[in-house]
Write a structure and sequence with these properties.
about 240 residues, mainly alpha, about 0% strand, globular
Length: about 240
């Protein structure tokens, strides 16, 4: 059974399936050394350093999407970003630090986008939670985020990657909860709010991880079913004494 999306403020036709979400345009490719324009005169060194840092992270994400975790190398990322490998290692001394920073980068971009779009959402607590749940589902399907599943597999046998994944998971969880606080207000301060959010994230991640295996798609419920159970768990938690 294919994974399908549920209802939200966006039209259903705009919501992609777990397998078809396009890579954001700015991450599809990074310019090579010869394509990058010369540095503009008058910019501060700090601004130039920030531009280089962002170019490296965007190039890393593009490589992860195109080639996967195992085939993404610091040399290849440097070429995509138009910098030397030595310059890349000045910012990120190890491959693990580079990958960790790249995923944090896309998580922060997406968090900003959600807050900008949904911080003014009105309606009941349940309606606002429903919007947030739908957005988490959509964002979890974006290609750079789905790369995180490869990180989990690598972390099982790689101690360095294990530490990276642990830090990454903490950052993503903190980012999502920060977004929830901005969108949901006082509701996010109730006891158990963070536990409910964690369980929701794990549920969505588990569904998409299973759906990413072609032979296992028959085991995956429709998003409407998954969403119903998530919202039922919200109702149960909200009914508990504060």
């Amino acid at each position: 059974m294919p994974v399908t999306t549920g209802n939200s403020k966006r039209d259903k036709a705009e919501r992609p399936s777990a397998k078809t979400e396009p890579v954001p345009a700015r991450l599809e490719s990074a310019p090579t050394r010869t394509e990058r324009t010369p540095a503009k005169a008058g910019r501060s060194r700090a601004a130039q350093r920030e531009e280089t840092r962002v170019a490296i992270l965007d190039a890393t994400l593009a490589s992860l999407v195109e080639l996967g975790h195992a085939a993404t190398t610091t040399r290849g990322v440097a070429e995509r970003a138009g910098v030397s490998q030595g310059a890349l290692q000045h910012y990120y001394p190890t491959r693990a630090e580079l990958l960790d920073a790249a995923i944090r980068h896309i998580a922060d971009i997406m968090a900003d986008a959600v807050v900008e779009t949904y911080s003014t959402v009105t309606g009941s607590d349940r309606e606002r939670v429903g919007v947030l749940v739908d957005e988490l589902w959509t964002l979890a399907q974006v290609a750079p985020v789905s790369v995180g599943f490869e990180f989990l597999a690598a972390a099982r046998t790689d101690p360095e990657m294990s530490a990276t994944v642990a830090h990454l998971a903490e950052h993503l969880e903190a980012t999502v909860f920060s977004v929830a606080q901005q969108i949901l207000g006082e509701l996010a301060d109730r006891p158990g709010a963070r536990d409910w959010m964690r369980i929701t994230l794990l549920t969505i991640s588990g569904v998409l991880l299973t759906a990413s295996v072609p032979a296992a798609t028959s085991l995956v419920p429709e998003w409407a079913v998954v969403r119903h159970h998530i919202m039922t768990s919200f109702d149960t938690w909200r009914a508990e004494p504060s």
